[in-house]
Amino acid sequence: MSDLKFDGRVAIVTGAGAGLGKTYALDLAKRGAKVVVNDLGGARDGSGSSSSAADTVVDEIKAAGGEATANYDSVATIEGGENIVKTAIDAYGKVDILINNAGILRDKSILKMSEEEWEIVLAVHLKGTYSCSRAVFANMKANNYGRIINTTSGAGLYGNFGQTNYSAAKMGIVGLMNSVHTEGAKYNIKVNTIAPVAASRLTEDVMPPEMFEKLKPEFVTPLVVNLAHEDLQESCMIFNCGLGWYSRAAIVCAPGVVLGDGERLVSAEEVQAEWKTISGLEEAKPLGSVNDTFGFIMTGLQGLQKQ
Ligand code: NAI
Fold it and tell me: Model-level pTM?
């Protein structure tokens, strides 16, 4: 095993004043990266702000001999994203790594959720990931180098009660990754997304205490360090992680069935007759882009023409 070093690299970690983001910032700095520690310093529900969260982490990095700069902007606006990136470029001249991590919760069941609760969660998670990725993209493109790590959640990938706002935002981040990957591929910009499980103020009241004790955020950090490193070749992937479990998750597409001949319209009854194949996942696999879906259609039609 070789050491994963980050000498000469510049990283932005959003929401790095606490929880998971703090562990990423500390570890990357320890490995030689110059780090912009962004944190709005608000409450778990996104209200309020304070500079102390980011400052404390910057002080800790400096005390350990590392280099870091604080930023207190909210990720939730385009202007905030631009200021965060400006902080990095003013201090260190470039950005190599962006970790989109900042997050809040406003849990309510769908009938009880207010418009404000929906919008603020979408703004911090989805728009926040967009605004920082957008702001960093020009610099990464110019340098022909970038590593972006986004944060989704099992709640988005698989669903959770009381989190329609959060689940939608977190799954939106996966869609955003898919297209940032497509746009960034030719500039050596790799973008991946993690679905962590870890003890933090976001999870302290949703987990049994004995589980909470064990789920140290530091279990997630090694995966993020790998995704941030120059050795990384993979892009557009989703990874589950927590308590030493590291696993890839994916949106897959099955070949299914092609009905009709490409000219004749298909009846509902024909679809019903093939329901087992249509709703099954046999031979399903992840696709490289939306264009690959046409491959299934064309292959299916060619098969029909041969019959
Ligand atoms: P945390 O609450 O400890 O850390 C989030 C940080 O983001 C806080 O320091 C907060 O001040 C900051 N923040 C919030 N809104 C901000 C904004 N608008 N601009 C800048 N900073 C802002 O929570 P945790 O658990 O470390 O969460 C980190 C990320 O991981 C979040 O995106 C969360 O949704 C995600 N996640 C966490 C899970 C877990 O088990 N802890 C599970 C799945 C996803």
Answer: 0.97
Q: Are 296 and 302 in contact (CB under 8 A)?
A: no
Q: For ligand 1, atom 25, which residue shows the shortest CA distance? A: 200
Give the 3-state secondary structure of residue 242: strand
Q: Which atom of ligand 1 is nearest to the CA of 18?
A: 9
How far apart are the CA of 278 and the centre of ligand 1, in A?
A: 38
Q: To which H or E segment does residue 276 belong?
A: helix 275-279
The token pair that represents 94 in the structure block: 């470039």
The domain limits of the chain are 10-249, 252-306
E strands in the chain: 10-13, 34-38, 67-71, 97-99, 146-151, 189-196, 238-242, 245-249, 252-253, 285-286
Q: pLDDT digit string (tens) for 103-156?
A: 999 999 999 999 999 999 999 999 999 999 999 999 999 999 999 999 999 999
Ligand 1, from 14, 27, 40: best to mutate by most atoms within 8 Å of Cβ?
40
Quick one: 10-249 is in which CATH superfamily?
Answer: NAD(P)-binding Rossmann-like Domain (3.40.50.720)
Q: In what order do the strands lie in the sheet with 10-13?
A: 67-71, 34-38, 10-13, 97-99, 146-151, 189-196, 238-242, 245-249
Which of 198, 259, 202 shows the shortest CA–CA distance to 223?
Answer: 198
End-to-end CA distance of the chain: 54
Ligand 1 nearest atom to the CA of residue 199, by list position = 41
Q: Which two tokens stand for residue 244?
A: 């030493």
Pocket of ligand 1 from Cβ distances under 6 Å: 14-15, 17-21, 38-42, 44, 46, 53, 74-76, 101-104, 124, 128, 151, 153, 196-198, 200-203
For the chain, what's the residue count?
307
Question: Which CATH fold topology does 252-306 show?
Answer: Helix Hairpins (1.10.287)
